[in-house]
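Reopening this one. Same input as before:
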Amino acid sequence: MKRTTIVVIAALILLAPQADVNAETRLHLATQYDWEEKLGFYLSFEGATLAELPLILGVADGENWRFDRYQPGFVPDTQYRIRAVISPEQSELLLDDIPVAGSAGAWRRGDGPVAVYHRPAWASDPGDWLAVVHTISVFVTREDEEVERQVFDFPDAGSRTPLRLFEYPPPASARMDIRSGDTVTLDVVLEFAEADLNRWAPFIDRYGQCRYAEWPGKVRSDQELLADVAAEDAELAKMQPSPDYDRYGGYLKAGRRSEATGFFRVERRGDYWWLISPEGNPCFYTGVTGIPGAMWPATPVSEREYLFEWLPPREGAWAGCWGQNYWGMTDGTEFVCFRSANLMRKYGPDDWRERDVERVVRRLKAWAFSGAGKWGGAEGMPTVPVLHRWGVPGLVRHPDVFDPEVREQFRRVLEGQVGPRKDDPMVLGWTLGNEYDEIVTTDEVKEVLTKPAETPAKRALLDYAVDELYEGSLADLATAWEVEAGDREALYGLKPSPPDEDVEKLRLHYADRYYDFIYRTVKAADPNHLYMGFSIVPGWWVNEDDWRISAPYCDVICLDRYSEDYEYAALARLKAESDKPVFIGEFSFPQFYDGERGFGRYGAISVKNEEEAAQSYERWVRDATSDPYCVGMTWFTYRDQPLTGRGPGRGDRLVIGERFAFGLVTETDRPKWPLVKRKREVNLKAVHWRLEASTTAE
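Same output, byte for byte:
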């Protein structure tokens, strides 16, 4: 028998089976499968209610899936032993050694490791139960002889129940030699804990920390916060800003200067793109998003006040810790920012905002960052402002840029944002919207085609279809689309369903006109600054053509990428195709702390602690500086998110929205020294690495 330690790997982020499409609460006890190819097996709980919780064994034979289902319901504080036996002829499910379900049929193995104790992100609603798994054993029998066994132990599973309500422990995995004709047996020992929040409330202490968590550095008194100021001053005094950089992050000792235009711009030297500071110095930009935001991030408290040990008064100085209707909500949901409360304790009730801003700037300069990124900034530091289209009517997910009146409204909205800063050298470049929100989707185009005949976008798309897709032949279009239309007016009045390939071409035309309008409008209102697109996310789009169609309308392509690795083949190919500089608008390695503080685990990019985050940061920056197209990158984000989530939403739930330790500082405004000290070292080396890479390439 061989025991294995718990290993978290990217392969555990799986496309989960859909045996019960209504289930939004699942826990995979053991899996090795390919859902689309109908290979492998999985053993899971699928349901939100413990008293009716089904246990499901899914088995695939390469042609079909079959499901052994047992739904007895379970009770808390009772230990259960679950066994699943998958043999070449049949599958069997046993509960406490009693057969409860099974089916005849063969099975075929899936690829990849056997993964255990995994809750998929897409089905992670908490339900009313918490599975406390003690052991999961997987053993393989071949010709009646056991040939391999893996035992996964979770020895402290039952001792940290309140913390487990925030997040299950990291999943585990192991590669096993499983062959066709083998029998695989799964043994699970577990019990269920009550997920009744009232039993454990309050969860959050007066400083925004988990009451059930213990770690060195946890704040326990106001006096500790007051003492932090002098202690941090002593650390920052050892980190004086380098004199080798201009105030925009341009490097003064590169041995060359370019024309100083007073604004950021890009230029190419050999194969390498460079960001040039307003003073004409080459720069590899390293920044931080989400600063300073005195009331951000906040957590919704309406309908769940009992989760908090203390909430600030709503009047007097403490009123500055409260907000309403964030994220565009309109239902009066109240939000509280514990970080604001901690800053008031730390700096006093009168000038805590001003002192916080001063501290943010001092920190970022001491940590050798070039400046800010998206989502806020600080006086005297470069930033990447995000434009919005609030007030512009939407036809579908996006405005009708074929409508002259809408275009005029859109133009006024954009000019109102860029105009006041068109002469500001601290604007690195403009972006608009964010990520998938700015992708024009297939469903949008289909919806546009159902609009009234007078809708400008509908008419424009149908004209494009006739003139470009069918070379001016309405008759050919009518045949291909299986519609009857004697003239264009008749076509406008229809609600056609074009072939998929035509819908895609119409989608790209809509997107092309949308991105073109934004680019031309922003550049006309502000010819001084770079336009950087909408922070496209490789892979989070309809297809690769979304990169291709938007790239021509960017001076620099801003992209967000949350991944263990900086590069992958498809992205490298797309960058080479567009042949434009790129800027990483968001990347990060949030710390999970092995679940010891209550923060969530952000898939494969989560790391164990601040030291590991620093190592990953260095690896990413090294790889980015050697990429001829990359001119800079900004870390997401300045501060950790609240343990109970940043929203949007409201209700009686422990976590609402994201709750990850992305930050450089904690919810108690304490710098993560192992992380920021290493980042300072990396930031100071970044431009040297790029100079070396570009010189070597020459």
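So the earlier flakiness isn't reproducible anymore. For the record, The radius of gyration is 28 Å.
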